[in-house]
Amino acid sequence: MKKLLKGIIDFRQRFLRRYREKFSKLAQEGQAPDLLLVSCCDSRVAPNVFASTNPGDVFVLRNIGNLIPPYSQVHEGDISAAAALDYSLLFLNVSDIVICGHSECGAMCSFFNAATQDTSSLPLKEWLHYAEISYLKFKELKKNNVEFEKFKKSHASQADLSDHNLLSQLNVLQQIENIKSYPEVKKRYIAHQLRVHAWWFDLVSGNIYYYNENLKKFILLDEIEAERLLLKGLST
Ligand SMILES: [Zn+2]
Questions:
Q1: 35 CA to middle of ligand 1, Å?
Q2: How far is the CA of 110 from the centre of ligand 1 (A)?
Q3: Is residue 69's pLDDT more than 80?
Q4: pTM: predicted TM-score of the whole model, two decimal places
Q5: In this structure, are strands 59-63 and 35-40 parallel, antiparallel, or unpaired?
Q6: C-alpha to C-alpha distance for 56 and 32, rounded to whole angstroms
């Protein structure tokens, strides 16, 4: 709390003058972000910092593990993710959805830690059940060590990725599948009105990796790749 309050004072003293006009314009004209970003609640994942974005640029949905319940399960559980998704499409008409996982994710680590599993509260356990399918896929891969290492080399951002970080990348891909199960997403995606991206933030290096559909691999998002993604456009 102390840091937050100090930050508010610091913002008032150093930046408010610069942002006042921007906020006032946004208040009058409303928001028009062209992107929905789904990321984890983790305090170390700060999209405004790693993507240098400003107020009004990005519509953000954050939850533990950056999870999107499959459409078939929406009415059985938490509907806040579905509501945010609906809002971003029906009212903001976003052209891109990014699901961004991250390294050292507590939600992913919990699958490897029996003690955490035992002490988790019921809501937490129920929520993480949406990531269980990712963990099952991970365990299936892990059954064959040679295939597992081969998979990491060809699909993961780094060949020496730890188990929980590989699970985190598999989980992002699973959430992409889940989000495409929503009729409105499906419709727009098929009509080339919407792009859906899997990203992964590496806390240690500060790098973002994106999943390249053609290469089936998480690739470092640098200047060249960013340019390539921009040129791709919605019609391709
Ligand atoms: Zn996390």
A1: 20
A2: 10
A3: yes
A4: 0.91
A5: parallel
A6: 7
